[in-house]
């Protein structure tokens, strides 16, 4: 297989509801879509879902655009490969920039699956016909606003809700949601906002009584020791997200017992191949995993659905329907959830068609290797 043409589109879409985390608020997204065409005319799609600002991690839309054009496009174009892992090896010497790599990885996997005439889920080794979806809710202006959002998602059929927390917005909103929904699969995500001190320990001891499924990423990404210390002191499983960028990080987590659940984000880990390898390593260690999201458009969301069909994704994943985020998505049909479950496509590749006219209408800049002016 050989990619003969690459097109990149930076696409801007508004969110139907603003989203607040411990570090920032967003009302829209700027992601980069990758269209890869091989020598036989097959087309594969990937998505670089990096945030616009360096708050979740160090990557941004701007850094991803630069790395893509300077390093990943030259590495991907014209290279002969048979398996997606061989395709990804072309940029092995590029350190970091996992979000950018993940977009190219997904395009290669989509092409590979289409060439084999199998679904992306089947190509990855998926075993499920549908995946259980959860929703992630941001910080709201008031607890009443949060309760209204939780009720809206429960009414839509979602049985798992993740709440963003931050210092000053933690114990009381969580208690209010738990009181209103005593049977809800509920967990919290701090995005590393808490310092490793006595005040934080008191917060997590209080949250330990809320019957949460997990407490996600309480401390800074590199502080495995703080996570291990906290895990020893509370019953609730700690889930790591930002801390685990590669398989070495996962081995550190396992060795220190710094977390007992893993959030696998394809974007954070640099692509589908390493995400699958992390799934396998966690499964061997008896650690359950789930797929986190970065508010992906339909292209990236479809890849998340596919990876979530693997057997050790035993917890609900952030693959809720497109309508929760966008009035109109970039794929047709839009990804939909029914009673909190998303069907896994069985048609070749990601299983959805990209609405190129809509993409072009919302493109803020583009690049085409077939144009000499870039």
From TrEMBL:
Residues that span the membrane, as ranges: none
Keywords for the protein's UniProt record, in alphabetical order: Lyase, Magnesium, Metal-binding
Annotated Mandelate racemase/muconate lactonizing enzyme C-terminal domain residues: 143-237
Molecular-function annotations in GO: metal ion binding; O-succinylbenzoate synthase activity; racemase and epimerase activity
Cofactor(s) in the UniProt record: a divalent metal cation
GO biological process, alphabetically ordered: menaquinone biosynthetic process
UniProt EC number: 4.2.1.113
Protein name: o-succinylbenzoate synthase
Species in which this protein is naturally found: Microbacterium bovistercoris
The gene coding this protein: menC
């Amino acid at each position: 297989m050989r990619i003969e043409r690459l097109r990149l589109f930076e696409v801007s879409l508004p969110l139907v509801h603003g989203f607040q985390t411990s570090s920032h608020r967003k009302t829209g997204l700027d992601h980069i879509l990758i269209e890869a065409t091989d020598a036989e005319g097959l087309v594969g799609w990937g998505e670089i879902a990096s945030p616009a600002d360096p708050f979740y991690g160090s990557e941004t839309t701007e850094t991803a655009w630069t790395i893509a054009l300077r390093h990943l496009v030259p590495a991907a174009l014209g290279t002969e490969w048979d398996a997606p892992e061989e395709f990804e090896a072309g940029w092995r010497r590029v350190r970091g920039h996992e979000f950018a790599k993940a977009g190219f990885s997904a395009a290669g996997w989509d092409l590979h699956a289409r060439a084999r005439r199998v679904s992306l889920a089947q190509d990855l080794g998926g075993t499920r016909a549908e995946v259980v979806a959860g929703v992630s809710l941001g910080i709201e202006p008031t607890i009443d606003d949060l309760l209204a959002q939780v009720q809206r998602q429960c009414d839509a059929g979602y049985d798992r809700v993740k709440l963003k927390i931050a210092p000053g917005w933690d114990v009381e909103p969580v208690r209010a949601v738990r009181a209103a929904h005593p049977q809800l699969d509920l967990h919290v995500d701090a995005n590393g906002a808490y310092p490793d001190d006595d005040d934080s320990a008191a917060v997590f001891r209080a949250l330990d009584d809320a019957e949460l499924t997990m407490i996600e990423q309480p401390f800074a990404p590199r502080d495995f020791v703080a996570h291990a210390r906290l895990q020893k002191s509370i019953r609730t499983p700690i889930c790591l997200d930002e801390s685990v960028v590669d398989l070495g990080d996962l081995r550190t987590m396992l060795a220190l017992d710094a977390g007992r659940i893993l959030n696998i984000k394809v974007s954070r880990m640099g692509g589908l191949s390493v995400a699958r390898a992390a799934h396998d390593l966690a499964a061997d260690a008896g650690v359950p995993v789930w797929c986190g999201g970065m508010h992906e458009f339909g292209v990236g969301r479809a890849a998340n659905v596919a990876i979530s069909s693997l057997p050790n994704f035993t917890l609900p994943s952030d693959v809720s329907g497109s309508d929760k985020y966008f009035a109109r998505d970039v794929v047709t049909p839009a990804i939909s959830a029914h009673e909190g479950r998303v069907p896994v496509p069985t048609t070749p590749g990601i299983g959805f068609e990209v609405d190129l006219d809509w993409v072009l209408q919302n493109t803020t800049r583009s690049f085409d290797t077939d144009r000499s002016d870039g």
